[in-house]
Amino acid sequence: MAHFLLLPVGSHGDVHPFVGLGVGLRDRGHEVTVITAEPFRGVSVRNGLAFVGTTSTDDYNAMADHPDLWHPSKGLRVVLDKDKKRKSLPRAFAAIRERYEPGTTVAVGGSLAHAGRIAHDALGIPFATVHLQPLACCSVADPPVAANGMDGTWLPKPLIRLAYWSAEKWITDPLAAPPVNEFRHTLGLPPVKRVITKWSPSPQRVLGLFPDWFGPIQDGGPNFRHAGFVMFDDANGRQTPPPLNEFLANGPPPVVFSFGSAMRNGRPYFDAAVEACRLLNVRGVLLGKSGEQIPPTLPPNVMHADYAPFSEVFPKAACVVHHGGIGTSAQAMRAGVPQLVMPLAYDQADNGTRMKRLGVARMLFPKRFRGPAVAEQLKTLTRDEQAKQNARQVADRLRETDAVATACKAVEELIGADVRRSV
């Protein structure tokens, strides 16, 4: 039996796949500890996993409430906040070092799990990097679509490499490198650069938690593996609210709207959702945290819930409207229903474009996301028999593979792959 230290970074869509992986490893007889932000203690412990908090609930909520979080260019400053990184890095590293036993411990981290990468350099612990979405792989062979929808796949490969280099030199390294290198200095490690594309991915194992037909990473190198979507939404721990179950059962399939678990400023989008339902005279479900972002008065054909497991709600939908986060996208594809994607930032436009290529989704960017435009897109999607057929075929493809087993095997291969300690 080995001990796996899982280091997800982000919101529910980033953490849940790690919990799903952790449950798979637990069922295979391993000990599992999740090391991440404090709000995810509950979902980890409920599923039999040990937990260590690295970011306080207050700090996590401050990030989620930040008005720039979903801005296509300003959002990175929130996600890569230097001061928060300076606090979380030492905590995560200390948790790893305290639990590391050579020969039996493996660290598995998300794309931004820099504490795990530092621990590999400093302690020699085996380390696997998990990319939840193709964009995180920074592929030249299959370059991502930018947050604003600009598609550079037609560019010559030297220009794509130059674009990555420029983005890192002028945008991501100035944000990510200072706290990483300051902490590395305290451990006697040399500074690093090109943090996101070159240093951060593990030299031992990089795992893509998405199918190769969704994001074919042909230049991932000999240590790259595709596993498929690891889907987990804590349906056993947080069940669908009874009023929502009743609503779903008593009427035609509704349109389900969800703009991310970390969304706190979605009022314009939920207003547009309600208006679109009114214009089309269809039922709607708004999934999002309560507060000012939810319209205070909803018509009888529209219902709101703070949370519901996507695996239970999406299959009962006529269409799913969402922001294009990879976790939501994967759940919608598994449900076999058409999608309308409103990408805000990060990987969302790339995910939406990939689903559009599969014929299961349409996209509508935030500036055009108004009631009449949403209604027009929904009218087209819900009447498009080819889109419905494509959605069912994609769902069938997802059911053909056991992504959890594949991912577990990929990280189990690192048991005992320790390298020489340096501190």
Summarize the topology.
Elements: E1 3-7, H1 12-27, E2 31-36, H2 41-46, E3 50-53, H3 57-65, H4 75-79, H5 82-99, E4 105-109, H6 114-123, E5 127-131, H7 157-186, H8 195-199, E6 205-208, E7 224-226, H9 242-249, E8 255-258, H10 267-280, E9 284-287, E10 302-305, H11 310-313, E11 319-322, H12 326-335, E12 339-341, H13 348-357, E13 361-363, H14 371-383, H15 385-399, H16 403-412
Parallel strand pairs: 1-2, 1-4, 2-3, 4-5, 5-6, 6-7, 8-9, 8-11, 9-10, 11-12, 12-13
Describe it for me?
- With 423 residues, this protein is an alpha/beta fold.
- It has two domains: 237 residues, Rossmann fold; 158 residues, Glycogen Phosphorylase B (Rossmann fold).
- Helix content is 43%, strand content 13%.
- It has 16 helices and 13 strands.
- The strands form two sheets. It has a seven-stranded parallel β-sheet, sandwiched between helices. Strands 10-9-8-11-12-13 form a six-stranded parallel β-sheet, sandwiched between helices.
- Helix 5 crosses helix 7.
- The chain is globular, with a radius of gyration of 21 Å.
- The two termini are 26 Å apart.
- The mean pLDDT is 92.
